[in-house]
Design goal:
The chain is mainly β. It contains 1 helix and 6 strands, in the order ββαββββ. It has one helix at about 30-35; strands at about 1-5, 15-25, 40-45, 55-60, 65-75, 80-90.
């Protein structure tokens, strides 16, 4: 799967971290805690160039079984600022 998302609102030279997770929706908070909640997780650190940055990530879904999942993208800064967005997807055989 090819994923693209935009990161903006950071000053040029600002450090940031992106984390992309594929998670099964639903279930209790306790079950997500013990199972980790993620079917797949990819993280990367970067330095923002300023303005609008388009980030591209390739994700291999061969480790994920068929079903409905949430793609969750989180962008965070060392100062503790964090923004998360989700989009539902369906994986088929």
């Amino acid at each position: 799967m090819q994923l693209s998302f935009e990161v903006s609102g950071l000053l040029a030279g600002s450090a940031y971290r992106t984390e992309v997770r594929i998670v099964r929706p639903g279930g209790s908070a306790l079950s997500r805690l013990f199972r980790g909640g993620s079917a797949l997780r990819v993280a990367a650190n970067g330095v923002h160039p300023g303005g609008l940055l388009v980030v591209h990530r390739g994700l291999a879904l061969d480790q994920v079984g068929p079903g409905t999942y949430l793609v969750e993208v989180t962008v965070s800064t060392p100062a503790g600022e964090k923004v998360t967005r989700q989009q539902e997807i369906t994986v088929v055989k």
